Amino acid sequence: MQVFKKLGAISLIFAITIVISCGGSKPPTDATGELPPDDASDVDVPPTDTDVPPTDADVPPTDADVPPTDTDTVCIQNCGNRVCGPDPVCELSCGTCPEGQTCTSDGQCVPLGCEEDCSGLECGPDPVCGKWCGDCADNQGCDLEGKCVALNKDCTDGWCVIPAGQFEMGALDDEEPYDFRQRPRHPVTITRSFSMMETEVTQGQWNELVSENPSHHKSCGDNCPVEGINWFEAVYYANALSEKLGLENCYTLEDCSGTVGSGIPGDVSPGAGTPDSEVYRCASVTFKGLDCAGYRLPTEAEWEYAARAGTTEPRYGDIEAIAWHEENSSYKTHPVGTKAANAWGLRDVLGNVFEFAWDWMGANYYSTCATGCTDPLGPDSGTDRVIRGGAWIITAPLVRLAVRGHYAPDFRFSNVGIRLVRTLP
Length: 425
What we know:
The chain is of the alpha+beta class. It has helices at 2-17, 70-73, 203-209, 231-244, 300-308, 319-322, 365-368, and strands at residues 101-103, 109-111, 140-142, 148-150, 155-156, 159-162, 165-169, 186-190, 194-197, 251-257, 281-287, 354-360, 373-374, 385-388, 404-407, 416-417, 421-423.
């Protein structure tokens, strides 16, 4: 497509317009965390009257288009709670153990002769040495007691129950394309059951609560995912749904300005085409915590736990059966729920549009959460918020469960939407 040939010309625009500020505007950093394959630009789909191939405003920047930053290109050692052995990402030493002790694979000093104690456990982490005790069979998950249990679809009125449990988060060692930001693969415990929307929030659902619909693909219809919203608008919508149903707000938004849903998404800089004063943003957003009874964004760990639904593979099924991606989307979004569900009944968790998570993006965060990782909320601060799941414009090799992307919280683009969760009593 000609549009990809133009991206080199606009790379200078990104270099000039990047502003590292939580409250300010900046273009997106790497939306996928990985470089697309060389032949990604060979795809050419003829336009229609209502859905046209993406313009420069529609194509997310790749690593080749954005000036490198330290967190994007340099492996930063972060031992987290490791006291010995190599940092699992950079392979630099985190320290040595005293005499009479040895270092486990999780970077902890234990008496010589430490052996895994998986007695009574079918899965989950060994409580002594911290190693994973084993994986469950297909269509099974690991519960909080370390037992393999059947995964049941329990979906009602567009919401699916995701029971508490344990899983390994991140990419397999041999998963390609390689990206250190998806590693190390580490045990995570989710202690609260929650319900998750079966599909992404649709344009019809958005229109019920917000007067302005920012979606680029409006012609797709009310049953297509809302997109073109930014992260601030995502948490605003979560609060609005909570208020509608008489639940507590999970977010406290302070010093907000602009109009929710107003303006044109997909510009190469957030202010282009839309007056900067109209872009909705807040000076601060405070999360009340996972025990909040209202609707909210999933944490990054909750998102991957729910999306995997027990699988340890890069995807939960054949990609053509489960996801809309660059090679099969005709460069547009599609009605939600038209692809196969995962074992918990969730649809479109891969493809169609990216989905915002609560977390700040931390390129080396997985190193800090390599052991004892329970209900993680991500880094305490950052410049970008996490997006997960891939989208209609993302090439198939990058539409995987472990891939991590990120956008500035005030940036709006036609490939990102939302899916809400609610902690169960």
